[in-house]
Model the fold of this input.
Amino acid sequence: MASLVKKIISTAKAPAALGPYSQAVLVDRTMYVAGQIGIEPSTGQLVSGGAKEEAKQALKNMGEILKAAGCDYGNVFKTNFPARAAYQVAALPKGARVEIEAIAIQGPLQDASA
Done:
């Protein structure tokens, strides 16, 4: 059985991971982007303006992480707003209201006909 390669994806254009996490991990061609919250990378602070502005910033941060791996939003095939963000099983870091995580495939994608 061939072994798979695991690579940690990191960029200074998105906030550093809070805690013992990576911004993203690439395994073979599948990238797992850790939950992003609305932190402005240059200040390290949560953006103001509520959930809508936090979501916009979280998506900007995710875009920078995708770019660091040679991807863009077109490579994303699954996003998730974790249940803890909706039901508060545990509070999000810095009092964030929104967290978005994603799974993407690195490289060109082609739709298969049914």
